[in-house]
Design goal:
Number of strands: 12
Distance between the termini: 49 Å
Structural class: alpha+beta
Helix content: 10-25%
Strand content: 35-45%
Largest sheet: 12 strands, antiparallel
Radius of gyration: 19 Å
Amino acid sequence: MNALTQELVELLSLEKIEENIYRGQSRNLVGKRVFGGQVLGQALRAASYTADRPAHSLHAYFLYGGDVNAPIIYKVDHLRDGKSFVSRQVRAIQHGRTIFTAMVSFASPEEGLNYQISEPEYPAVEDLKNEAELKTQLVEFVPENVRASFMRDRHVEIRPVNPQNPFQPQPEAPSYAHYIRTHGQIAQKVDEISLHQAIAAFYSDFTLMTTALRPHGLSYISPSLQCASIDHAMYFHKPFRVDEWMLYDMEATISASSRGLNFGRMWQNGELVCSTTQEGLIRLREIETQ
């Protein structure tokens, strides 16, 4: 596998400590706090280790910021083992306290009513520049103290449909889209549905919350802004592969009370394969209540 893809697979492959308890390693992906997508992916993987069918939904709350210098313990509680649905609760624990909790439901694929909305029309992925190329065009805007972290490669390849300069944001419509996939193919020996779902959960946290910032002319690095994920939901509709291009289409419906509500849809080969919802804190520090 590609080196970055191998690192991602390792990040989302947990060590079993004892029955229903797993340990995941942390990586500095976005700064001092653990990237929310890492915790989402690891928690989903922990729950998946205890189930005999694919996940169909995940509902999570981020309670505290994670420490990138310490591993995370995941404890899985069995809530239900039914014929149709299997339910699990996962707690992510670090330094003795729960920093994240999630409910995950699993169900086997079955035939039934079938309908989906139409896929949005965007330029083809081969006509777009990848994120790494776009970053090279922004070097002059990047402060020296954050240049190394800003320019480093992500563990996934992203090709934005409607990119913006985060250092000079302008008010725009509350929508955003990009194509996304792993840099390399998933090796056959680890090619499991649970891994693809965990990587999609990891994917799902990229840029989703910042969609609500666009109409305000703000970006995730605006100096006056405090941003944090509050909760995250994800629905898995149909099979997909994370090492093939997926279109991630996002929109925000409202920003109020220092929170923004964002929705996302993942498309692959014309099929709506995943849906996401996330509410995030978007507080201006200069008007923060003491």
